[in-house]
């Protein structure tokens, strides 16, 4: 990875930590606690968990004489690291009325001070520490996006439909081109290489053979998706994967998340409040099942993650996480790191689909064409969209 001076390292650390706290500025104290669904976490938990990461993996092990801020915080803010110890069940993160929001911010300040103290002490193992810190910072950036998407989901259930981030790029409509890009049959290199940070699931650069195919340089728009709905797309079982059809019926889904039809017009909840649907804006908040059904309706398909990466230099990406037709599996020579850090990615390589790109909620400098996001196929709450492909 790229090495920084101690000053550069701390500047970057504090910039990212401060960005997290800037996301809190529009919130009321009451907004920090609710957890209306298992797949979302409250803002207070995100603030504590990202801080715990630095305490657990850096300070406890590398700052001599370090005293934890609170003996119970590891139990409260551990997410899924079994080697670290017991933790609050994920579904119960929203019952943590204690500690207070104020205490969690004090926890963040305490850990920030100790990280600064450690890196200013000229430790002998600076390279190891910088590697751990870079992982922690990228981890925090992941949670910054989750902070936004989780908050949006929670506040969407509030009858007041509050405005939270009214003036950000998150809510702006997006332009779309309308061209098909052709890629020839051949062997393509896939995976991360070079300097800079990447996750372990991007490593194992390897060659794949791709048949000739075409891929769009645009993402599906709301207008295109409304046409799918009006053509009874949610009522035609022949368009859906079997599990997708079962999910649609059980969940009674009939539109993307946050859409609501009022007096014949479509509206959608945004972080700027409830708005009439912009038909020319890029579609968002669809599950893999919906994406696959739409592609079937169009007589096309979703690209594989390899097709996506091979073509990615030819189109603009980064406004929606794009569902691919690839299961989340390890690359050749993938190896999990030792210890609890090894639980970061590898153990999730089952029953999930890969998404490529980034989204309007992704943190600055936290995207690259080899980035492999992954979610279960029924989830809608991320800023997910659809890019189509077809075989030649």
Automatic annotation (TrEMBL):
> In which pathway does this enzyme or protein participate?
Amino-acid biosynthesis; ergothioneine biosynthesis
Its GO biological process terms? ergothioneine biosynthetic process
Domain of life according to the entry = Bacteria
Question: Which Gene3D superfamilies does the record cross-reference, listed alphabetically?
Answer: paralog of FGE (formylglycine-generating enzyme)
The residue ranges of the Sulfatase-modifying factor enzyme-like domain are: 180-312
All residue ranges annotated as the DinB-like domain in the record: 15-145
Q: Where is the signal peptide?
A: none
Keywords of this protein's UniProt record, alphabetized? Iron, Oxidoreductase
The protein's name in its UniProt record = Ergothioneine biosynthesis protein EgtB
Record organism: Sediminitomix flava
Lineage from the top down?
Answer: Bacteria, Pseudomonadati, Bacteroidota, Cytophagia, Cytophagales
């Amino acid at each position: 990875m790229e090495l920084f001076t101690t000053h550069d390292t701390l500047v970057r650390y504090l910039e990212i930590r401060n960005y997290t706290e800037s996301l809190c500025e529009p919130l009321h104290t009451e907004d920090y606690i609710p957890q209306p669904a298992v797949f979302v976490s409250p803002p207070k938990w995100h603030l504590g968990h990202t801080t715990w990461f630095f305490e657990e993996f850096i300070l406890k092990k590398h700052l001599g004489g370090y005293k934890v801020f609170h003996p119970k915080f590891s139990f409260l803010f551990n997410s899924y690291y079994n080697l670290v110890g017991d933790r609050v069940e994920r579904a119960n993160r929203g019952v943590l009325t204690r500690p207070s929001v104020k205490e969690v911010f004090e926890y963040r300040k305490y850990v920030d001070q100790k990280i600064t103290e450690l890196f200013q002490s000229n430790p002998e193992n600076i390279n190891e520490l910088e590697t751990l810190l870079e992982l922690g910072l990228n981890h925090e950036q992941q949670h910054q996006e989750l902070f936004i998407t989780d908050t949006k989901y929670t506040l969407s259930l509030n009858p007041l439909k509050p405005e939270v981030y009214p003036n950000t790029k998150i809510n702006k409509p997006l332009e779309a081109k309308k061209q098909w890009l052709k890629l020839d049959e051949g062997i393509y290199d896939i995976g991360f290489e070079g300097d800079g940070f990447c996750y372990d699931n991007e490593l194992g650069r390897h060659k794949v053979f791709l048949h000739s195919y075409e891929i769009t340089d645009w993402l599906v728009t709301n207008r295109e998706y409304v046409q799918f709905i009006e053509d009874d797309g949610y009522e035609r079982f022949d368009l859906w994967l079997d599990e997708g059809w079962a999910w649609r019926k059980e969940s009674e889904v009939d539109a993307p998340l946050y859409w609501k039809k009022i007096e014949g017009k479509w509206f959608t909840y945004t972080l700027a409040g409830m708005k009439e649907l912009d038909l020319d804006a890029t579609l968002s908040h669809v599950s893999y099942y919906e994406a696959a059904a739409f592609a079937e309706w169009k007589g096309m398909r979703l690209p594989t993650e390899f097709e996506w990466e091979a073509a990615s230099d030819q189109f603009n990406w980064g406004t929606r996480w794009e569902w691919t037709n690839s299961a989340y599996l390890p690359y050749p020579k993938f190896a999990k790191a030792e210890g609890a850090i090894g639980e970061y990615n590898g153990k999730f390589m089952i029953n999930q689909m890969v998404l490529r790109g980034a989204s309007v909620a992704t943190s600055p400098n936290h995207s690259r064409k080899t980035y492999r996001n992954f979610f279960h196929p029924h989830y809608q709450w991320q800023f997910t969209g659809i890019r189509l492909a077809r075989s030649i």
